[in-house]
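FIELD: query
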Amino acid sequence: MKKQAEFWEPTEEGIRCLLCPRLCSIPEGKTGFCGARKNEGGKLYTLIYGTVTAANP
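FIELD: result
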């Protein structure tokens, strides 16, 4: 599921993700280092929203 992300700002190169200390600069159509966020149409989207990433049995 894809959802528009929070914690980003537009830049001349594309988008800067502000979620973690890496501060990825993400050009149009590319994902950040984590692979969980993508620049689509000048907006940042999370690609893992609603996905279970851990469970405690």
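FIELD: remark
The CA atoms of residues 20 and 44 lie 14 Å apart.
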